[in-house]
Specification:
It is built from two helices and ten strands. The longest helix is centred in the middle third of the chain and has 11 residues. It is mainly β. Helices cover about 10% and strands about 40% of the residues. A five-stranded antiparallel β-sheet has the order 2-3-1-7-8. About 35% of the residues are buried. The N and C termini lie far apart (about 35 Å).
Amino acid sequence: MDLAWIESEGGPVVLVEESLRRLWGGYTNSDYDNACEVDGYTGPVPFGEPSAPSLAFAINDIPAPTTYMEEFRALVQWIAAPSDDRLVEVVRGGIDFVKEWEDGPVVQVNGRLALFDAALPGTQAAADELLLVDVEPAVYRLRTADIESDTGTCARVHRLDRLIE
């Protein structure tokens, strides 16, 4: 399976609606600092126009290569694995057996999402520094869990679970 992976320069990555990506200032204003202050695995970060802020969602805690697995509607962070194939195999084999997910923020998704290094201004994220994520417009809750194998492979998974309205 060929998945695209992005990495940060050491801080969080941020999930922003693609149509609003141009408003993310990254290191050029307080957006990056605010993303770094998120407590926990994920959290909302207001950005854009102060009179009508938008919300981004920081994927925090560890700087790790990150991809999106559409089949699970999940962002997957590579914690430890000998290869991306092995990591994907462990996620596929373990995601249905996670007993406890940590609830994160509720996310209103109105269209395509962009995932990139929170330090970058949204307009400067190059194609190889950006993942575009297509999900159906709806309200989701971000839930996080670690999936591990007995051979030391570990992934942190941030799943978008659709909330029924």
